[in-house]
């Protein structure tokens, strides 16, 4: 996702989330709203799941997962979830910290880089302020990189690979090395909220360093398998990489073709020409079903039934609002409302992916995924998000 859209995505995360479902909720009406939503916005397909008190009480599927083959989505259809991957990475970070037995506050305030940091191997660092970045800064988007100033290196994988003289496209580690070697921070660490995909790439590498396992494998074994989730994986990049049970993604028909990240010349749809998902793993790489997502949300809801991945006191730390960086809805890896009782996250990729999942303080969780992001002007994404979240939450009241 280009920097302007990611900046506007933050507004989608912040609005329309404060409605809390109450008694007499109608899960079917919420599903019907999703159906109306895709028809109104010319979205090919969607899938939704709703959970209450630890039990999935409703699933529904609409439109087409694959227009060309007239395939309708099923509950088992996998979808790219984009930045809805970030809370999954946050849960994994807290899980690896819990399992290591460290003091949580000390671990969060430990530096990321430098000889005593989580990732001492990165030694070519241009800006000395980088050594002040902590694990907490990465989780709360206050590490010091501002997309509106320096852009998003996570989507410059062709240029970075050429600059670093590595195979195209650049790996997640190469992107980190490039930024540290050639770029300065835009603001001092710990001072301001600036949404950062790079920060969650780095978090995935910290998980690997602490667990001695690849990021994807660690999440699958330690977070997903205990919940009975066996289908989630990091997405493939091209149409040929698409899994048999995966939705097909459709760029908004008003969007222009995109230059390939693989050769910097072949033109094609952004959805299959613009992304390298293993480079995006920790911030936007996962495939999931809505049922997977509500199970994950429920696994950090200590007052609900079902398997809990983290201790209640760890969830309290993860979902406590951060008051020092200028964003009242910031917490550690999530967007938080009502003192952390309501948490959620959205995901979007230009222009073929939109997703959202959330859990509320009264036992509800819901998730919805789409195979098109129907925006022409980037500022429309905030209004789209408000319509979606207000609509679903309103029907669940």
Automatic annotation (TrEMBL):
<dbReference type="InterPro" id="IPR050491">
    <property type="entry name" value="AmpC-like"/>
</dbReference>
<feature type="domain" description="Beta-lactamase-related">
    <location>
        <begin position="34"/>
        <end position="375"/>
    </location>
</feature>
<dbReference type="InterPro" id="IPR001466">
    <property type="entry name" value="Beta-lactam-related"/>
</dbReference>
<dbReference type="InterPro" id="IPR012338">
    <property type="entry name" value="Beta-lactam/transpept-like"/>
</dbReference>
<protein>
    <recommendedName>
        <fullName>Beta-lactamase-related domain-containing protein</fullName>
    </recommendedName>
</protein>
<dbReference type="Pfam" id="PF00144">
    <property type="entry name" value="Beta-lactamase"/>
</dbReference>
């Amino acid at each position: 996702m280009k920097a302007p859209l990611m900046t506007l995505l933050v507004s989608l995360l912040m609005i329309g989330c404060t409605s809390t479902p109450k008694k007499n909720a109608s899960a079917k009406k919420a599903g019907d709203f999703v159906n109306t939503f895709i028809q109104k916005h010319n979205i090919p397909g969607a899938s939704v799941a709703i959970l209450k008190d630890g039990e999935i009480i409703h699933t529904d599927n609409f439109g087409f997962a694959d227009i060309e083959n007239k395939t309708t989505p099923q509950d088992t259809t996998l979808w790219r979830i984009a930045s809805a991957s970030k809370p999954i990475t946050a849960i994994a970070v807290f899980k690896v910290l819990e399992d290591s037995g460290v003091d949580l506050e000390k671990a969060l305030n430990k530096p990321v880089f430098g000889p005593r940091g989580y990732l001492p191997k990165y030694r070519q660092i241009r800006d000395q302020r980088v050594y002040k970045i902590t694990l907490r800064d990465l989780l709360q988007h206050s590490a010091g990189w501002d997309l509106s100033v320096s852009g998003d290196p996570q989507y410059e994988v062709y240029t970075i690979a050429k600059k670093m003289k590595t195979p195209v496209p650049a790996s997640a580690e190469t992107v980190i090395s490039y930024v540290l070697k050639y770029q300065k921070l835009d603001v001092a660490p710990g001072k301001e909220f600036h949404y950062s995909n790079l920060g969650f790439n780095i978090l995935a590498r910290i998980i690997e360093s602490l667990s001695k396992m690849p990021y994807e494998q660690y999440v699958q074994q330690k977070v997903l398998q205990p919940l009975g989730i066996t289908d989630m994986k990091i997405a493939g990049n091209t149409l040929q990489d698409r899994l048999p049970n995966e939705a097909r993604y459709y760029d908004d028909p008003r969007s222009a073709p995109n230059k390939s990240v693989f050769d910097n010349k072949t033109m094609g749809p952004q959805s299959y020409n613009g992304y390298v998902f293993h480079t995006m793993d920790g911030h936007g790489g996962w495939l999931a079903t809505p049922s997977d997502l509500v199970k994950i949300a429920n696994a950090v809801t200590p007052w609900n039934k079902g398997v809990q991945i983290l201790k209640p006191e760890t969830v309290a730390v993860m979902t406590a609002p951060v008051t020092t960086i200028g964003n009242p809805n910031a917490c550690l890896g999530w967007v938080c409302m009502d003192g952390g009782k309501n948490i959620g996250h959205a995901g979007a990729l230009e222009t073929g992916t939109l997703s959202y999942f959330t859990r509320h303080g009264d036992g509800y969780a819901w998730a919805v995924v789409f195979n098109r992001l129907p925006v022409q002007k980037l500022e429309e994404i905030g209004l789209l998000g408000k319509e979606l979240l207000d609509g679903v939450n309103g029907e669940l009241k």
